[in-house]
Automatic annotation (TrEMBL):
Name of this chain's protein: 2Fe-2S ferredoxin-type domain-containing protein
Lineage: Bacteria, Pseudomonadati, Pseudomonadota, Gammaproteobacteria, Moraxellales
Keywords: Oxidoreductase
Gene Ontology MF, one: oxidoreductase activity
Domain of life: Bacteria
Protein species of origin: Acinetobacter baumannii NIPH 80
Length: 76
């Protein structure tokens, strides 16, 4: 199992899990729309850009990023 932190909340996932899947497991969202609505990953292949998150200070796509031990994920 890999432990990562989503908005400060500890989440454990199996190795090979995408950050988008970890967000779903944690019942979290990836960002807020301009209207303030919660947005979640949609396409799962990096096209829609709905899964943008900050990981260890870098802006990345959650659906294209695998979880790593002690990773720090911040949503908007």
């Amino acid at each position: 199992m890999i432990q990562l932190f989503i908005n400060g909340q500890s989440v454990s996932v199996i190795e090979g899990t995408s950050v988008a899947a970890a967000l779903a497991q944690a019942k979290s969202y990836s960002r807020l729309s301009v209207c303030g609505e919660k947005r979640t990953p949609f396409c799962g292949m990096g096209v829609c850009q709905e899964c943008r998150v900050n990981i260890n200070g870098l802006r990345v796509l959650a659906c294209q990023t695998l979880c790593q031990q002690d990773m720090k994920v911040e949503t908007q």
